[in-house]
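anyone else get weird line breaks when pasting these?? whatever heres mine. first is seq + tokens for prot A
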Amino acid sequence: MEELEALRKMVEAHDYSAALALIDEMDEMAKDDKIVKIQAYIKILLIHLIKQTAEKRTTKSWKRSIANALDGIYSSNKRHRAKGFYLTPEELNEAIEDRFNRSLSEAADEAFEGELSPQDLLKTIDKEAIKKEALDLILTYEP
């Protein structure tokens, strides 16, 4: 990894301010990667919550997908060494907001054999209740 080699050279040269700046940049890159991963799991979670709500039923497969998504969100968001989490509840809520429409489109392809458009599917659900449920599930999940 080029960054680690650059960091080593900065420390060896006693250029600590540049080394700290590079550490901050590397930390931000790692957080960005975590966010992308968490958002992908949130999308899966929302797709299945939308389908459950719209169709007023569930399947073992949907339950398994929800459980796997929650586990993926938890695992990706957990800071193992520093303890705590990468994303705050507010940031998780923003991610849910950001991913909802994309999830709705994919859920429309799957729910009711794909017969409804995303707009028509939206009429069958309470969007805010699903977003709240998703956040509640994420925040209360324990592996």
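and prot B, same format (seq, then tokens)
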Amino acid sequence: MMNYGYQQYKTQSVETMTKGEMLILLYDEINKRLLRARTYFEKGDNELFEADIQRAIDIVNYLSKSLDRKYPISNDLYRLYDFITFQLSRVKSGRNLDLIDDVTPLITDLRESFKEADRMTKKDPSVGAGIGTTTTSINLGVG
């Protein structure tokens, strides 16, 4: 019974998020998965290591597919997401943890950029108009 209430709360909180808040949450999830993957690798749990890397790849692919490609910044983000996906695939197949260290700052920088953009659009919805989506919550090429 208690679990049902918690699940309802989680669903409601996600449904009331702005697109910017959702993006930030997705970047946080990628970072969390990469941190957990490192921990699993160090413990020798290859199955969970691969699962967390794959989940990070899936999230990046989702972000890539959600881009509104009619804006120039979307093409730049697409290339960056493609690079991140490539690097994460190399991490998964080659067990090269140094590549996680290369990708993590990119994810963190993207998160901070979208966080700032979301903050700015909450203050003034006209900020970023025409740069990205048709919504006013965040206008940086994400549809």
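btw re prot B: The chain has a mean pLDDT of 80. Residues 88 and 106 are 12 Å apart (CA to CA).
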